Protein backbone atom coordinates (compact mmCIF):
# COMPACT_ATOMS: atom_id res chain seq x y z
CA UNK A 1 0.00 0.00 0.00
CA UNK A 2 1.38 3.37 -1.04
CA UNK A 3 1.75 5.92 1.74
CA UNK A 4 0.33 9.30 0.77
CA UNK A 5 2.11 12.39 2.01
CA UNK A 6 1.13 16.01 2.14
CA UNK A 7 2.57 18.05 -0.74
CA UNK A 8 2.85 21.80 -0.05
CA UNK A 9 2.51 22.70 -3.73
CA UNK A 10 1.17 26.15 -2.88
CA UNK A 11 4.43 27.08 -1.18
CA UNK A 12 6.41 26.96 -4.42
CA UNK A 13 3.93 29.19 -6.25
CA UNK A 14 3.60 31.55 -3.28
CA UNK A 15 7.37 31.98 -3.18
CA UNK A 16 7.36 32.54 -6.91
CA UNK A 17 5.00 35.53 -6.62
CA UNK A 18 6.49 36.89 -3.38
CA UNK A 19 7.13 40.61 -3.72
CA UNK A 20 5.18 41.05 -6.97
CA UNK A 21 3.30 44.36 -7.36
CA UNK A 22 -0.42 44.04 -6.64
CA UNK A 23 -3.10 45.71 -8.73
CA UNK A 24 -4.67 48.87 -7.29
CA UNK A 25 -8.30 48.97 -6.21
CA UNK A 26 -9.03 51.71 -8.76
CA UNK A 27 -7.57 49.65 -11.64
CA UNK A 28 -9.39 46.52 -10.49
CA UNK A 29 -12.73 48.36 -10.20
CA UNK A 30 -12.29 49.93 -13.64
CA UNK A 31 -11.47 46.54 -15.17
CA UNK A 32 -14.53 44.95 -13.53
CA UNK A 33 -16.82 47.72 -14.78
CA UNK A 34 -15.39 47.44 -18.31
CA UNK A 35 -15.98 43.69 -18.27
CA UNK A 36 -19.55 44.21 -16.99
CA UNK A 37 -20.14 46.64 -19.87
CA UNK A 38 -18.87 44.01 -22.31
CA UNK A 39 -21.27 41.46 -20.79
CA UNK A 40 -24.21 43.88 -21.13
CA UNK A 41 -23.32 44.74 -24.74
CA UNK A 42 -22.90 41.07 -25.64
CA UNK A 43 -26.23 40.26 -23.98
CA UNK A 44 -27.98 43.00 -25.98
CA UNK A 45 -26.33 41.77 -29.19
CA UNK A 46 -27.48 38.20 -28.53
CA UNK A 47 -31.03 39.35 -27.71
CA UNK A 48 -31.25 41.53 -30.83
CA UNK A 49 -29.91 38.72 -33.01
CA UNK A 50 -32.39 36.20 -31.58
CA UNK A 51 -35.30 38.61 -32.00
CA UNK A 52 -34.27 39.52 -35.54
CA UNK A 53 -34.08 35.87 -36.52
CA UNK A 54 -37.36 34.94 -34.83
CA UNK A 55 -39.28 38.19 -35.47
CA UNK A 56 -41.44 39.36 -38.31
CA UNK A 57 -40.22 41.98 -40.81
CA UNK A 58 -41.07 45.53 -39.70
CA UNK A 59 -41.80 44.45 -36.13
CA UNK A 60 -40.32 46.55 -33.29
CA UNK A 61 -37.59 44.88 -31.25
CA UNK A 62 -37.74 45.15 -27.46
CA UNK A 63 -34.46 44.47 -25.66
CA UNK A 64 -34.06 44.12 -21.89
CA UNK A 65 -30.82 45.37 -20.37
CA UNK A 66 -30.54 43.91 -16.90
CA UNK A 67 -27.12 42.84 -15.72
CA UNK A 68 -28.15 41.20 -12.47
CA UNK A 69 -31.67 40.05 -13.34
CA UNK A 70 -32.62 36.42 -13.60
CA UNK A 71 -30.64 33.20 -13.53
CA UNK A 72 -29.54 33.44 -17.15
CA UNK A 73 -27.71 36.70 -16.36
CA UNK A 74 -25.75 35.05 -13.55
CA UNK A 75 -24.86 32.13 -15.81
CA UNK A 76 -23.79 34.56 -18.55
CA UNK A 77 -21.57 36.48 -16.07
CA UNK A 78 -19.95 33.30 -14.72
CA UNK A 79 -19.37 32.02 -18.25
CA UNK A 80 -17.84 35.32 -19.38
CA UNK A 81 -15.56 35.86 -16.37
CA UNK A 82 -14.69 32.18 -15.99
CA UNK A 83 -13.87 31.53 -19.64
CA UNK A 84 -12.07 34.79 -20.41
CA UNK A 85 -9.93 34.58 -17.28
CA UNK A 86 -8.95 31.01 -18.13
CA UNK A 87 -8.56 31.39 -21.91
CA UNK A 88 -6.53 34.61 -21.73
CA UNK A 89 -4.14 33.56 -18.94
CA UNK A 90 -5.73 35.55 -16.11
CA UNK A 91 -6.58 38.58 -18.24
CA UNK A 92 -10.18 39.44 -19.03
CA UNK A 93 -10.49 42.16 -21.68
CA UNK A 94 -11.01 44.74 -18.90
CA UNK A 95 -7.99 43.50 -16.96
CA UNK A 96 -5.88 43.54 -20.12
CA UNK A 97 -6.82 47.19 -20.74
CA UNK A 98 -5.96 48.08 -17.13
CA UNK A 99 -2.74 46.02 -17.29
CA UNK A 100 -3.80 43.58 -14.59
CA UNK A 101 -3.61 39.82 -14.37
CA UNK A 102 -5.15 37.20 -12.07
CA UNK A 103 -2.50 34.85 -10.70
CA UNK A 104 -3.19 31.57 -8.92
CA UNK A 105 -1.49 31.04 -5.57
CA UNK A 106 -1.89 27.29 -5.88
CA UNK A 107 -0.86 26.59 -9.48
CA UNK A 108 1.54 27.95 -12.06
CA UNK A 109 -1.38 28.79 -14.39
CA UNK A 110 -4.95 29.55 -13.39
CA UNK A 111 -7.16 26.55 -14.13
CA UNK A 112 -10.62 26.57 -15.67
CA UNK A 113 -12.11 25.54 -12.33
CA UNK A 114 -10.14 28.28 -10.52
CA UNK A 115 -11.46 30.83 -13.00
CA UNK A 116 -15.04 29.62 -12.55
CA UNK A 117 -14.65 29.65 -8.75
CA UNK A 118 -13.43 33.22 -8.95
CA UNK A 119 -16.35 34.19 -11.22
CA UNK A 120 -18.81 32.61 -8.78
CA UNK A 121 -17.05 34.51 -6.01
CA UNK A 122 -18.01 37.79 -7.66
CA UNK A 123 -21.61 36.91 -6.83
CA UNK A 124 -20.71 36.49 -3.18
CA UNK A 125 -18.77 39.76 -3.16
CA UNK A 126 -21.81 41.52 -4.63
CA UNK A 127 -24.29 39.71 -2.35
CA UNK A 128 -22.50 41.14 0.69
CA UNK A 129 -23.63 44.62 -0.45
CA UNK A 130 -20.23 45.06 -2.05
CA UNK A 131 -18.28 44.40 1.15
CA UNK A 132 -16.56 41.46 -0.57
CA UNK A 133 -14.88 43.98 -2.88
CA UNK A 134 -14.04 46.39 -0.05
CA UNK A 135 -12.12 43.66 1.78
CA UNK A 136 -9.31 44.69 -0.59
CA UNK A 137 -8.58 47.46 1.93
CA UNK A 138 -8.44 45.26 5.04
CA UNK A 139 -6.67 42.14 3.76
CA UNK A 140 -2.86 42.30 4.09
CA UNK A 141 -2.39 41.16 0.47
CA UNK A 142 -5.34 43.18 -0.91
CA UNK A 143 -7.37 40.04 -1.55
CA UNK A 144 -11.13 40.25 -1.97
CA UNK A 145 -13.62 37.49 -1.18
CA UNK A 146 -13.50 36.12 -4.74
CA UNK A 147 -9.68 36.12 -4.61
CA UNK A 148 -9.67 34.07 -1.42
CA UNK A 149 -12.29 31.63 -2.73
CA UNK A 150 -10.21 30.90 -5.84
CA UNK A 151 -6.80 31.27 -4.12
CA UNK A 152 -5.73 34.11 -6.43
CA UNK A 153 -4.20 37.56 -6.36
CA UNK A 154 -4.45 40.36 -8.93
CA UNK A 155 -1.11 41.79 -9.99
CA UNK A 156 0.14 44.57 -12.23
CA UNK A 157 0.82 42.84 -15.53
CA UNK A 158 4.44 43.08 -16.52
CA UNK A 159 5.99 42.40 -19.90
CA UNK A 160 8.21 39.67 -18.47
CA UNK A 161 6.85 36.40 -17.05
CA UNK A 162 6.76 35.68 -13.34
CA UNK A 163 10.16 35.05 -11.79
CA UNK A 164 11.38 31.46 -11.63
CA UNK A 165 10.38 29.50 -8.57
CA UNK A 166 12.92 29.50 -5.80
CA UNK A 167 13.21 27.04 -2.98
CA UNK A 168 12.30 28.41 0.44
CA UNK A 169 15.13 29.04 2.86
Number of helices: 7
Instruction: Outline the low-pLDDT stretches.
Output: 165-169
Total beta strand runs: 2
The helix content, as a percent range, equals 40-55%
Q: Can you tell me about this structure?
A:
- The protein is mostly helical and 169 residues long.
- Helices cover 52% and strands 6% of the residues.
- It is built from seven helices and two strands; from the N terminus they run ααααβαααβ.
- A two-stranded antiparallel ribbon has the order 1-2.
- The two termini are 33 Å apart.
- 25% of the residues are buried.
List strands and helices in order, with pairings.
Elements: H1 9-17, H2 25-54, H3 70-87, H4 93-97, E1 100-104, H5 112-127, H6 131-134, H7 145-150, E2 152-156
Antiparallel strand pairs: 1-2
In short:
With 169 residues, the chain is mainly alpha-helical. The chain has helices at residues 9-17, 25-54, 70-87, 93-97, 112-127, 131-134, 145-150, and strands at residues 100-104, 152-156.
Annotation keywords:
mainly alpha; 6% strand; two-stranded antiparallel ribbon
Amino acid sequence: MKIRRYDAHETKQMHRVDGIELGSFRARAAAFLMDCLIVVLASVLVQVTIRLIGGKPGEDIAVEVGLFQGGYAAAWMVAYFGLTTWLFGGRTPGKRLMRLRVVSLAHEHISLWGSVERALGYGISIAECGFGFLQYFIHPNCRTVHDRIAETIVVRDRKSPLPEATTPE
